[in-house]
Structure formats: structure tokens, C-alpha cells
Amino acid sequence: MRARPRISEFALVGVATGWSFSLVLAGLWSVVTGATRATGFSVELVSAGLGAIAAGHVVFLSCVAERIFPRANRTIVLWMEMISCVIFFVASTICLVALFGAASLR
Q1: What residues does each domain of the chain span?
Q2: pLDDT digits (tens, 9 = 90+) for 17-76
Q3: For residues 67 and 13, is the Cβ–Cβ distance under 8 A?
Q4: Dihedral, 31, 86, 89, 23 alpha carbons, nearest 10
């Protein structure tokens, strides 16, 4: 069995941290600023922003936190990942329903 090189783990943690940070930042912008600027799409922007925040949380948990804290309590980690995934899927569904509903009204 070969040991994995440490540099690839550092690269993965760095890329995943940037990816999760950008998802959370875009989600926060969408929830806070985007919903007030485009009032016609406020439901869509808020739900898309919450979905992006939850997706960033899942990416950080699965790619960064598991590498830095490998002996974390799996029950807590599993529940956090499940809650974030449920929030992501519910927010994505709300966003799609709202977008298709707005498109059918036009």
C-alpha cells in the first residue's frame, strides 16, 4: 500500500476551501443584496442563495474538515452533512419551482 503524498492533500484542501468560500460568498450576496435589487425574483434569489450556502457547507465538510479532523465523531459529521444536503435540495427545488412558475406566467 502506498502512502498518499502530502502535497496533493494540501492542494485538495486549498482548492476545496476556495470553492466552498466562493459558494458561501455568492450565496450570502444572493440572499442579502440580490434579493433587494431584483425584487421580482426575490424568492428565487433567496432560495438559490440558501442552496449555495448549504452547498459550500457540504463541500467544506466533505473535502476539508474530514482531512483536517479525521477522527471527528462520525455521527455528528453525518448529521451535519445530511442537514446541509436537505437544505440544498429543498432550496434548489423551491428555486426551480419558483422559476418555472414565473416562466409559465409570462
Answers
A1: 6-105
A2: 999 999 999 999 999 988 788 777 788 899 999 999 999 999 999 989 888 888 989 999
A3: yes
A4: 50
Q: Could you give the angle at which helices 74-105 and 42-59 cross, rounded to 10 degrees?
A: 150
Predicted model pTM = 0.84
Distance CA 31, CA 106 (A): 25
pLDDT at 104 (0 to 100): 67
User: Rounded to 5 degrees, what are φ and ψ at 95?
Assistant: -65, -45
User: Rounded to an integer, what distance in angstroms lies between the CA atom of residue 92 and that of residue 57?
Assistant: 15
Classify burial at 86, counting beta carbons within 10 Å of its beta carbon; exposed 0-12, middle 13-18, buried 19 or more: exposed
